[in-house]
Write a structure and sequence with these properties.
SAM-dependent_MTases_sf, single chain, Rossmann fold, 20% strand, 38% helix, alpha/beta, SAM-dependent methyltransferase, eight-stranded mixed β-sheet
Length: 287
């Protein structure tokens, strides 16, 4: 029987379930494989800003919550908001809320799906640290929506509160850049709307300026990417979202194949994969 016009535009049976399953798998890969690569960045920032018992931290784009967990272990009171990847937020709740509870508040941690407005807290003192640790400066257009979010978050904090932005370092200092170029090549003709691009020197400062924040220092941190094997490396890199445009323009199997080939120069004799990278952070302050 010939399908109707409406039927031709319906997704194939099981497509929604497949997408949901894929999103869950990638969120788990992020939490179990990739997110730990940024631990040196989190530690450097927390050391510099002396995060501790007096810290009330608002984490924007908190993802699966590792940075919040590290701040909480230092005695900080943490709130995380996540509006883009709810699958990661579910994992953050497993990490930070007792027995994987789903309440917005439990103990010293609060996790909310949404933007900064969802984190407004009229009961407790204002936040005195805001972090946006999801690195920018690597995907075309990845910083455009961040400035309005920071503007929305600023009124929730004390005057002069440090706001931390993170980004990829110069391509010549990031070995992973050669692998990420696969995303750009495969994403054509979608290259301008979500695939990898070389980071620029003032990416973080530009966002801070648009958000009305005052830069107050910056730093660079070595964040090597190390994986147990090539399969782990592929899964970890795909979980970042940097290859989403490439997958949309081709297919997952093609992206995995070419990503695997690009990783060959970084395989060690014992089968592990190692890529040296430098990430940059900017400390800005609310007015």
């Amino acid at each position: 029987m010939t399908p109707t016009l409406a039927q031709r535009h319906l997704p194939p049976p099981g497509a929604a379930t497949s997408r949901a399953t894929d999103a869950h798998v990638r969120a788990r890969d992020w939490a179990e494989i990739q997110e730990r690569m940024l631990v040196p960045l989190y530690e450097a920032v927390y050391e510099r800003l002396e995060v501790g018992a007096g810290t009330r931290l608002l984490g924007i784009g908190c993802g699966s919550g590792l940075a919040l967990l590290m701040a909480s272990s230092r005695g900080a009171t943490v709130t995380g908001v996540e509006s883009v990847r709810p699958e990661r937020l579910r994992l953050a709740r497993e990490r930070l809320l007792p027995e994987g509870g789903w309440d917005d508040r439990a103990g010293e941690a609060r996790l909310v799906e949404g933007g900064p407005d969802a984190a407004e807290d009229v009961v407790h003192p204002p936040y005195n640290l805001i972090t946006a640790f999801q690195p920018i400066g690597c995907v075309a257009g990845d910083s455009e929506g961040l400035a309005p979010v920071l503007e929305e978050a600023a009124p929730l904090a004390e005057r002069g509160t440090p706001v931390v932005l993170a980004g990829w370092g110069p391509p010549e200092r990031c070995t992973t850049s050669s692998v990420l170029r696969v995303a750009t090549r495969l994403a054509d003709p979608l290259r301008s709307t979500g695939s990898w691009r070389p980071s620029e020197r003032d990416d973080l400062e530009d966002v801070a300026q648009r958000a009305g924040l005052k830069p107050d220092g910056s730093g660079r941190v070595a964040c090597p990417f190390g994986y147990a094997d090539v399969d782990s490396a592929v899964r970890g890199l795909l979980s970042t979202g940097l290859f989403d445009a490439a997958v949309g323009a081709t297919d997952p199997a093609q992206v995995r194949k070419e990503l695997t080939e690009a990783l060959h120069p970084h395989i060690r004799r014992d089968g592990t994969v190692w890529m040296a990278n430098v990430f940059r952070y900017l400390v800005a302050r609310t007015g």
